[in-house]
Inverse folding.
């Protein structure tokens, strides 16, 4: 009796194995990567993202790409926060790119070097990214610059201030022409108006800037001058604007 039962089990096992082989073959053939569609990117070209996704030998399979970028801790380009991957159909991968917010950029090696809010050198390009301020006076060791690594600056304190100021500029939808940190504090330039921000409390200070700039444009159009917020705090009763000259 036992031998007969064993003989009956083997066909079942073989059938299961055959089914698994067929399913594997279908997965290989049906889910073979034919194209990668990219959206949400501005720093990187579609071709750059597609090349990155396909650089792994196993990326010939769309299911592998889906698992790799949605369920695993896959390496990403330095300027990218995450890839949101889905399948448009079994053979087409759709990659929605979420790029990092950049804190600022400096001149470097004939191009622009962008760094993110954690101080990581994220992108080297000749393209200007809208809304990211140019940073004047940031001293760093150019010989140690490596994309994807923290930027080595001479003054960690001023670098932290730049990042803090940049985050609050975005918070209040402010886009200065440039930021300066040459004298140990932060200065923002909006056209002909220089705004002294000092070395902290940027949230409180920058909250005052949009209505003041609007009022200056109304009362003193095209008038160059300095807006003094370096010593401003929540208890301050007035803000000084000093015309140039």
């Amino acid at each position: 009796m036992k031998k007969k039962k064993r003989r009956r089990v083997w066909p079942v096992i073989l059938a299961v194995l055959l089914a698994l082989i067929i399913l594997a073959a279908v997965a290989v053939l049906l889910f073979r990567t034919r194209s990668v569609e990219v959206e949400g990117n501005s720093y990187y070209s579609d071709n750059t993202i597609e090349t990155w996704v396909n650089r792994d030998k196993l990326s010939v399979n769309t299911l592998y790409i889906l698992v790799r970028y949605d369920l695993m801790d896959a390496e990403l380009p330095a300027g990218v926060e995450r890839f949101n991957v889905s399948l448009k159909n079994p053979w087409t991968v759709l990659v929605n790119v979420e790029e990092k917010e950049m804190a600022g950029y400096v001149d470097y090696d004939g191009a622009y070097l962008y760094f993110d809010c954690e101080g990581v050198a994220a992108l080297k390009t000749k393209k200007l990214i809208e809304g990211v301020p140019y940073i004047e006076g940031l001293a760093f060791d150019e010989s140690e610059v490596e994309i994807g690594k923290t930027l080595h600056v001479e003054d960690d304190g001023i670098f932290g201030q730049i990042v803090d100021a940049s985050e609050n500029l975005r918070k209040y939808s402010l886009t200065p022409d440039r930021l300066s940190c040459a004298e140990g504090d932060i200065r923002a330039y909006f056209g002909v108006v220089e705004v002294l921000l000092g070395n902290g409390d940027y949230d409180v200070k920058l909250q005052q800037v949009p209505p003041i700039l609007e009022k200056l444009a109304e009362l003193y159009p095209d008038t160059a001058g300095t807006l003094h917020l370096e010593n401003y705090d929540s208890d301050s009763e007035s803000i000084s604007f000093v015309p140039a000259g």
The chain is about 35% helix and 25% strand. Helices lie at 2-30, 46-53, 62-71, 156-171, 202-207, 209-219.
